[in-house]
Write a structure and sequence with these properties.
Layout lengths: L8 H12 L6 E5 L6 H13 L12 H7 L6 E4 L5 H13 L3 H15 L12 H17 L11 H24 L4 H12 L7 E5 L7 H12 L5 E7 L7 H4 L3 E4 L5 H11 L9 H9 L4 H16 L8 H4 L1 H4 L10 H23 L3 H19 L5 H16 L1
Parallel strand pairs: 1-4, 1-5, 2-3, 3-4
Helix pairs in contact: 2-3, 4-5, 4-7, 6-7, 8-9, 13-16, 13-18, 16-17, 17-18
Length: 404
Protein backbone atom coordinates (compact mmCIF):
# COMPACT_ATOMS: atom_id res chain seq x y z
CA UNK A 1 0.00 0.00 0.00
CA UNK A 2 1.03 3.62 -0.71
CA UNK A 3 3.41 2.45 -3.43
CA UNK A 4 2.30 5.45 -5.52
CA UNK A 5 3.32 8.01 -2.88
CA UNK A 6 6.83 9.47 -3.10
CA UNK A 7 8.40 10.66 0.15
CA UNK A 8 6.84 11.20 3.60
CA UNK A 9 8.33 8.01 5.04
CA UNK A 10 7.26 8.61 8.65
CA UNK A 11 3.67 9.52 7.79
CA UNK A 12 3.31 6.64 5.35
CA UNK A 13 4.73 4.17 7.84
CA UNK A 14 2.26 5.36 10.50
CA UNK A 15 -0.64 5.07 8.07
CA UNK A 16 0.39 1.58 6.96
CA UNK A 17 0.58 0.41 10.55
CA UNK A 18 -2.74 1.91 11.57
CA UNK A 19 -4.56 0.66 8.50
CA UNK A 20 -3.14 -2.85 8.83
CA UNK A 21 -4.26 -2.98 12.46
CA UNK A 22 -7.64 -1.36 11.84
CA UNK A 23 -6.69 1.66 13.95
CA UNK A 24 -7.04 4.44 11.38
CA UNK A 25 -9.09 7.20 13.08
CA UNK A 26 -12.60 8.18 12.07
CA UNK A 27 -11.52 11.83 11.88
CA UNK A 28 -8.06 13.00 10.80
CA UNK A 29 -6.16 16.03 9.52
CA UNK A 30 -3.48 15.89 6.83
CA UNK A 31 -1.63 19.22 7.01
CA UNK A 32 1.47 20.63 5.40
CA UNK A 33 2.72 22.77 2.51
CA UNK A 34 1.25 22.85 -0.98
CA UNK A 35 2.47 20.23 -3.47
CA UNK A 36 3.25 17.75 -0.66
CA UNK A 37 0.85 15.05 -1.90
CA UNK A 38 -1.75 15.31 0.86
CA UNK A 39 -4.72 14.65 -1.42
CA UNK A 40 -2.98 11.76 -3.19
CA UNK A 41 -2.25 10.22 0.22
CA UNK A 42 -5.85 10.73 1.36
CA UNK A 43 -7.16 9.07 -1.81
CA UNK A 44 -4.77 6.17 -1.35
CA UNK A 45 -5.95 5.86 2.26
CA UNK A 46 -9.52 5.65 0.93
CA UNK A 47 -8.51 2.89 -1.49
CA UNK A 48 -6.86 0.84 1.25
CA UNK A 49 -9.87 1.26 3.54
CA UNK A 50 -12.25 -0.08 0.89
CA UNK A 51 -9.99 -2.78 -0.64
CA UNK A 52 -12.03 -5.98 -0.89
CA UNK A 53 -8.89 -8.12 -0.78
CA UNK A 54 -7.80 -6.49 2.46
CA UNK A 55 -4.19 -6.04 1.32
CA UNK A 56 -4.30 -2.53 -0.10
CA UNK A 57 -1.61 -3.35 -2.67
CA UNK A 58 -1.53 -0.86 -5.56
CA UNK A 59 -1.60 -3.82 -7.97
CA UNK A 60 -4.86 -5.12 -6.46
CA UNK A 61 -7.53 -5.69 -9.12
CA UNK A 62 -10.53 -6.07 -6.82
CA UNK A 63 -13.62 -4.09 -7.94
CA UNK A 64 -13.22 -1.61 -5.09
CA UNK A 65 -9.61 -0.78 -5.92
CA UNK A 66 -10.40 -0.39 -9.61
CA UNK A 67 -13.09 2.15 -8.78
CA UNK A 68 -10.79 3.99 -6.39
CA UNK A 69 -7.94 4.15 -8.90
CA UNK A 70 -9.98 6.01 -11.48
CA UNK A 71 -11.87 7.99 -8.78
CA UNK A 72 -15.34 6.65 -9.49
CA UNK A 73 -15.95 4.87 -6.18
CA UNK A 74 -19.43 5.89 -4.94
CA UNK A 75 -18.44 5.59 -1.27
CA UNK A 76 -15.66 8.20 -1.48
CA UNK A 77 -16.58 11.86 -1.90
CA UNK A 78 -14.65 15.14 -2.02
CA UNK A 79 -15.58 18.72 -1.18
CA UNK A 80 -13.62 21.94 -0.80
CA UNK A 81 -11.91 24.48 -3.07
CA UNK A 82 -9.00 23.40 -5.25
CA UNK A 83 -6.82 24.71 -8.08
CA UNK A 84 -7.38 22.04 -10.73
CA UNK A 85 -6.60 23.68 -14.05
CA UNK A 86 -2.82 23.47 -13.66
CA UNK A 87 -2.83 19.82 -12.57
CA UNK A 88 -5.09 18.90 -15.50
CA UNK A 89 -2.80 20.71 -17.96
CA UNK A 90 0.35 19.09 -16.53
CA UNK A 91 -1.28 15.65 -16.53
CA UNK A 92 -2.45 16.05 -20.14
CA UNK A 93 1.11 16.97 -21.11
CA UNK A 94 2.38 13.84 -19.34
CA UNK A 95 -0.08 11.67 -21.30
CA UNK A 96 1.09 13.17 -24.59
CA UNK A 97 4.69 12.42 -23.61
CA UNK A 98 4.00 8.93 -22.33
CA UNK A 99 1.02 6.87 -23.44
CA UNK A 100 1.51 4.43 -20.58
CA UNK A 101 -1.39 3.42 -18.26
CA UNK A 102 0.09 5.42 -15.36
CA UNK A 103 -0.16 8.66 -17.36
CA UNK A 104 -3.71 7.83 -18.39
CA UNK A 105 -4.71 7.31 -14.75
CA UNK A 106 -2.91 10.54 -13.84
CA UNK A 107 -5.14 12.58 -16.15
CA UNK A 108 -8.34 10.72 -15.26
CA UNK A 109 -7.68 11.35 -11.58
CA UNK A 110 -6.72 15.01 -12.12
CA UNK A 111 -10.04 15.67 -13.85
CA UNK A 112 -12.12 13.69 -11.36
CA UNK A 113 -10.50 15.40 -8.39
CA UNK A 114 -12.48 18.31 -9.81
CA UNK A 115 -15.69 16.68 -11.04
CA UNK A 116 -16.30 14.50 -7.98
CA UNK A 117 -17.05 17.70 -6.05
CA UNK A 118 -20.35 17.62 -7.97
CA UNK A 119 -21.23 14.06 -7.00
CA UNK A 120 -25.05 13.72 -7.07
CA UNK A 121 -25.03 12.36 -3.51
CA UNK A 122 -23.69 15.64 -2.09
CA UNK A 123 -24.37 18.28 -4.78
CA UNK A 124 -27.18 20.79 -4.29
CA UNK A 125 -29.10 20.21 -7.53
CA UNK A 126 -31.47 23.11 -6.68
CA UNK A 127 -28.63 25.63 -6.75
CA UNK A 128 -28.56 27.35 -10.15
CA UNK A 129 -24.76 27.48 -10.30
CA UNK A 130 -24.44 23.81 -9.35
CA UNK A 131 -27.11 22.85 -11.88
CA UNK A 132 -25.15 24.60 -14.63
CA UNK A 133 -21.96 22.81 -13.59
CA UNK A 134 -23.65 19.39 -13.55
CA UNK A 135 -24.20 19.65 -17.30
CA UNK A 136 -20.53 20.50 -17.83
CA UNK A 137 -19.48 17.60 -15.59
CA UNK A 138 -21.57 15.22 -17.71
CA UNK A 139 -19.89 16.61 -20.83
CA UNK A 140 -16.47 16.01 -19.28
CA UNK A 141 -17.34 12.42 -18.41
CA UNK A 142 -18.33 11.81 -22.03
CA UNK A 143 -14.91 13.06 -23.12
CA UNK A 144 -13.16 10.92 -20.52
CA UNK A 145 -14.80 7.79 -21.92
CA UNK A 146 -12.19 7.80 -24.69
CA UNK A 147 -9.48 7.53 -22.02
CA UNK A 148 -11.00 4.54 -20.24
CA UNK A 149 -8.15 2.23 -19.11
CA UNK A 150 -9.80 -0.73 -20.87
CA UNK A 151 -9.79 0.98 -24.28
CA UNK A 152 -6.99 1.78 -26.72
CA UNK A 153 -5.76 5.36 -26.75
CA UNK A 154 -6.52 7.42 -29.88
CA UNK A 155 -3.62 8.27 -32.25
CA UNK A 156 -1.43 11.22 -31.20
CA UNK A 157 -3.22 13.85 -33.31
CA UNK A 158 -6.67 12.77 -32.13
CA UNK A 159 -5.43 12.50 -28.54
CA UNK A 160 -4.12 16.07 -28.65
CA UNK A 161 -7.49 17.34 -29.86
CA UNK A 162 -9.30 15.34 -27.16
CA UNK A 163 -7.07 16.74 -24.42
CA UNK A 164 -7.72 20.29 -25.61
CA UNK A 165 -11.48 19.64 -25.40
CA UNK A 166 -11.09 18.22 -21.89
CA UNK A 167 -9.10 21.27 -20.74
CA UNK A 168 -11.67 23.65 -22.26
CA UNK A 169 -14.59 21.79 -20.65
CA UNK A 170 -12.86 21.69 -17.26
CA UNK A 171 -11.89 25.39 -17.19
CA UNK A 172 -15.25 26.90 -16.09
CA UNK A 173 -15.75 24.16 -13.48
CA UNK A 174 -12.27 24.76 -12.08
CA UNK A 175 -12.90 28.52 -11.96
CA UNK A 176 -15.95 28.00 -9.76
CA UNK A 177 -14.43 25.38 -7.47
CA UNK A 178 -11.23 27.27 -6.66
CA UNK A 179 -13.01 30.42 -5.46
CA UNK A 180 -15.77 29.12 -3.21
CA UNK A 181 -15.70 28.82 0.55
CA UNK A 182 -17.05 25.54 1.93
CA UNK A 183 -20.69 26.34 2.76
CA UNK A 184 -22.97 25.15 5.52
CA UNK A 185 -25.12 23.51 2.85
CA UNK A 186 -22.19 21.41 1.64
CA UNK A 187 -21.35 20.27 5.17
CA UNK A 188 -24.98 19.43 5.93
CA UNK A 189 -25.33 17.39 2.74
CA UNK A 190 -22.06 15.66 3.53
CA UNK A 191 -23.34 14.84 7.03
CA UNK A 192 -26.57 13.45 5.58
CA UNK A 193 -24.57 11.32 3.14
CA UNK A 194 -22.46 9.84 5.96
CA UNK A 195 -25.60 8.65 7.75
CA UNK A 196 -27.35 7.32 4.65
CA UNK A 197 -27.00 3.50 4.82
CA UNK A 198 -23.76 4.17 6.70
CA UNK A 199 -23.59 0.68 8.17
CA UNK A 200 -23.52 -1.16 4.85
CA UNK A 201 -19.96 -0.32 3.74
CA UNK A 202 -16.98 1.87 4.45
CA UNK A 203 -17.37 5.52 3.47
CA UNK A 204 -14.65 8.15 3.16
CA UNK A 205 -15.25 11.90 2.99
CA UNK A 206 -12.28 14.10 2.04
CA UNK A 207 -12.48 17.84 2.75
CA UNK A 208 -9.74 19.75 0.92
CA UNK A 209 -8.62 23.22 2.06
CA UNK A 210 -10.68 22.74 5.19
CA UNK A 211 -9.51 26.11 6.53
CA UNK A 212 -11.52 27.87 3.80
CA UNK A 213 -14.92 27.40 5.38
CA UNK A 214 -17.82 29.69 6.25
CA UNK A 215 -18.29 30.25 10.01
CA UNK A 216 -21.65 28.49 9.97
CA UNK A 217 -20.05 25.58 8.09
CA UNK A 218 -17.43 25.23 10.83
CA UNK A 219 -20.16 24.84 13.42
CA UNK A 220 -21.94 22.24 11.28
CA UNK A 221 -18.67 20.34 10.79
CA UNK A 222 -18.01 20.41 14.52
CA UNK A 223 -21.39 18.83 15.15
CA UNK A 224 -20.62 16.20 12.53
CA UNK A 225 -17.27 15.42 14.17
CA UNK A 226 -18.86 14.90 17.57
CA UNK A 227 -20.77 11.77 16.46
CA UNK A 228 -19.54 10.45 13.10
CA UNK A 229 -20.94 7.04 12.07
CA UNK A 230 -18.55 4.20 12.88
CA UNK A 231 -18.23 3.19 9.22
CA UNK A 232 -17.21 6.69 8.04
CA UNK A 233 -13.70 8.15 7.88
CA UNK A 234 -13.47 11.92 7.57
CA UNK A 235 -10.12 13.27 6.29
CA UNK A 236 -9.51 17.01 6.36
CA UNK A 237 -6.67 18.56 4.34
CA UNK A 238 -5.09 21.98 4.79
CA UNK A 239 -1.96 24.02 4.17
CA UNK A 240 -2.97 26.33 7.04
CA UNK A 241 -3.40 24.29 10.20
CA UNK A 242 -3.43 27.43 12.35
CA UNK A 243 -6.51 28.68 10.50
CA UNK A 244 -8.65 25.75 11.70
CA UNK A 245 -10.47 26.50 14.94
CA UNK A 246 -9.19 24.70 18.07
CA UNK A 247 -12.49 22.92 18.77
CA UNK A 248 -12.25 21.21 15.39
CA UNK A 249 -8.52 20.50 15.71
CA UNK A 250 -9.09 18.79 19.06
CA UNK A 251 -11.29 16.18 17.35
CA UNK A 252 -8.82 15.28 14.61
CA UNK A 253 -5.77 13.04 14.64
CA UNK A 254 -3.01 15.09 12.97
CA UNK A 255 -0.64 13.82 10.27
CA UNK A 256 2.11 16.30 9.46
CA UNK A 257 3.39 16.43 5.87
CA UNK A 258 6.65 18.31 5.45
CA UNK A 259 8.02 19.59 2.16
CA UNK A 260 9.55 16.83 0.07
CA UNK A 261 13.33 16.80 -0.37
CA UNK A 262 14.81 18.10 -3.62
CA UNK A 263 15.52 14.55 -4.80
CA UNK A 264 11.94 13.45 -3.99
CA UNK A 265 10.51 16.41 -5.90
CA UNK A 266 12.74 15.53 -8.84
CA UNK A 267 11.38 11.99 -8.69
CA UNK A 268 7.79 13.25 -8.69
CA UNK A 269 8.39 15.41 -11.78
CA UNK A 270 10.24 12.66 -13.65
CA UNK A 271 8.17 9.60 -12.73
CA UNK A 272 4.71 11.13 -12.51
CA UNK A 273 4.72 14.12 -14.85
CA UNK A 274 7.37 12.77 -17.26
CA UNK A 275 9.32 16.01 -17.31
CA UNK A 276 13.03 16.75 -17.18
CA UNK A 277 13.63 18.71 -14.01
CA UNK A 278 16.61 20.96 -14.76
CA UNK A 279 14.35 23.86 -15.80
CA UNK A 280 12.19 23.81 -12.67
CA UNK A 281 13.22 24.83 -9.14
CA UNK A 282 11.21 22.10 -7.48
CA UNK A 283 7.56 21.11 -7.68
CA UNK A 284 6.27 24.56 -6.84
CA UNK A 285 8.32 26.04 -9.67
CA UNK A 286 7.00 23.31 -11.97
CA UNK A 287 3.37 24.17 -11.25
CA UNK A 288 4.01 27.92 -11.35
CA UNK A 289 5.50 27.43 -14.82
CA UNK A 290 2.15 26.02 -15.95
CA UNK A 291 0.62 29.34 -14.89
CA UNK A 292 3.45 31.14 -16.69
CA UNK A 293 4.55 32.69 -13.40
CA UNK A 294 8.27 33.21 -12.85
CA UNK A 295 9.17 31.92 -9.35
CA UNK A 296 12.32 34.03 -9.24
CA UNK A 297 10.27 37.16 -9.89
CA UNK A 298 7.87 36.17 -7.11
CA UNK A 299 10.80 35.78 -4.71
CA UNK A 300 12.22 39.17 -5.67
CA UNK A 301 8.87 40.88 -5.22
CA UNK A 302 8.25 39.19 -1.86
CA UNK A 303 11.65 40.31 -0.55
CA UNK A 304 11.01 43.84 -1.84
CA UNK A 305 7.60 43.87 -0.15
CA UNK A 306 9.13 42.90 3.22
CA UNK A 307 11.95 45.40 2.75
CA UNK A 308 9.42 48.20 2.28
CA UNK A 309 7.35 46.99 5.24
CA UNK A 310 10.39 47.16 7.51
CA UNK A 311 11.76 50.46 6.13
CA UNK A 312 12.18 53.18 8.75
CA UNK A 313 9.90 56.20 8.36
CA UNK A 314 7.72 56.69 5.32
CA UNK A 315 9.02 54.42 2.53
CA UNK A 316 7.73 56.99 0.03
CA UNK A 317 6.28 54.46 -2.41
CA UNK A 318 2.89 53.47 -3.72
CA UNK A 319 2.88 49.76 -2.91
CA UNK A 320 0.31 49.04 -5.63
CA UNK A 321 2.55 50.77 -8.16
CA UNK A 322 5.56 48.90 -6.76
CA UNK A 323 3.75 45.61 -7.36
CA UNK A 324 2.46 46.71 -10.78
CA UNK A 325 4.26 43.95 -12.68
CA UNK A 326 2.72 41.34 -10.42
CA UNK A 327 -0.75 42.79 -10.90
CA UNK A 328 -0.48 43.06 -14.68
CA UNK A 329 -2.56 40.45 -16.51
CA UNK A 330 -0.78 39.91 -19.80
CA UNK A 331 -3.28 37.40 -21.21
CA UNK A 332 -1.05 34.35 -20.94
CA UNK A 333 -1.74 31.50 -23.35
CA UNK A 334 -2.88 29.22 -20.55
CA UNK A 335 -5.71 30.63 -18.47
CA UNK A 336 -4.19 32.64 -15.64
CA UNK A 337 -5.70 35.52 -13.74
CA UNK A 338 -4.19 38.29 -11.67
CA UNK A 339 -6.04 36.80 -8.71
CA UNK A 340 -4.18 33.48 -9.04
CA UNK A 341 -0.86 35.26 -9.49
CA UNK A 342 -1.35 37.33 -6.33
CA UNK A 343 -2.38 34.19 -4.43
CA UNK A 344 0.92 32.61 -5.49
CA UNK A 345 2.70 35.78 -4.36
CA UNK A 346 1.11 35.58 -0.91
CA UNK A 347 2.24 31.96 -0.64
CA UNK A 348 5.77 33.08 -1.50
CA UNK A 349 5.51 36.01 0.91
CA UNK A 350 4.68 33.68 3.81
CA UNK A 351 7.82 31.66 3.09
CA UNK A 352 9.99 34.77 2.86
CA UNK A 353 8.56 36.08 6.15
CA UNK A 354 9.61 32.90 7.94
CA UNK A 355 13.06 33.23 6.39
CA UNK A 356 13.44 36.85 7.55
CA UNK A 357 12.35 36.06 11.10
CA UNK A 358 14.75 33.10 11.29
CA UNK A 359 17.68 35.19 10.07
CA UNK A 360 16.95 38.08 12.41
CA UNK A 361 15.88 36.09 15.46
CA UNK A 362 12.46 37.70 15.42
CA UNK A 363 9.62 37.23 17.89
CA UNK A 364 7.63 34.04 17.05
CA UNK A 365 4.40 35.77 18.13
CA UNK A 366 5.10 38.60 15.71
CA UNK A 367 5.73 36.09 12.92
CA UNK A 368 2.39 34.42 13.66
CA UNK A 369 0.64 37.80 13.46
CA UNK A 370 2.29 38.42 10.07
CA UNK A 371 1.29 34.95 8.91
CA UNK A 372 -2.28 35.51 10.06
CA UNK A 373 -2.39 38.77 8.10
CA UNK A 374 -1.14 36.97 4.98
CA UNK A 375 -3.69 34.16 5.45
CA UNK A 376 -6.52 36.68 5.78
CA UNK A 377 -5.30 38.47 2.64
CA UNK A 378 -5.33 35.17 0.73
CA UNK A 379 -8.88 34.44 1.91
CA UNK A 380 -10.05 37.88 0.80
CA UNK A 381 -8.68 37.25 -2.69
CA UNK A 382 -9.47 33.55 -3.13
CA UNK A 383 -12.85 33.34 -1.45
CA UNK A 384 -14.27 36.85 -1.06
CA UNK A 385 -13.23 38.00 -4.56
CA UNK A 386 -11.81 41.28 -3.31
CA UNK A 387 -9.63 43.34 -5.64
CA UNK A 388 -6.01 42.06 -5.41
CA UNK A 389 -4.55 45.59 -5.51
CA UNK A 390 -6.68 46.71 -2.56
CA UNK A 391 -5.84 43.57 -0.58
CA UNK A 392 -2.10 43.98 -1.14
CA UNK A 393 -2.24 47.62 -0.08
CA UNK A 394 -4.20 46.80 3.09
CA UNK A 395 -1.77 43.98 3.92
CA UNK A 396 1.21 46.27 3.45
CA UNK A 397 -0.06 48.88 5.91
CA UNK A 398 -1.17 46.25 8.41
CA UNK A 399 2.32 44.72 8.42
CA UNK A 400 3.84 48.20 8.67
CA UNK A 401 1.77 48.79 11.79
CA UNK A 402 2.88 45.43 13.24
CA UNK A 403 6.53 46.24 12.50
CA UNK A 404 6.39 49.69 14.09
Amino acid sequence: MFENIIGHGDVIQALRSELAQGRFPRSSLFFGPAYAGKLSTALETARVLTCAAGTGDWSCECPQCRLQKDLTHPQTVLIGPRYSDVEIAASADALMRSRKPASRYLLLRAVRKLTRRFDPSIADADDARVKAMLGRVAQLEELLADLDPDTELPPASELGSLLEKIAAAAAPIAAQVRGDLISIGQVRRLAAWTHLTAGESRKIAIVENADRMQDSARNALLKMLEEPPASVSLILLTTRRAAIIPTILSRLRPYSFTARSASEETEVMAKIFRRETADFPGLRGFFLAWREINPEKLTQLARRFIELVQAAGDPGVDIVEEMAELLADRGARRARSTRETVSSFLEELAGRMREVFRENGGDPDALERWNEAAREAATRIESLNMAPAAVLEALFYRLRAEAA
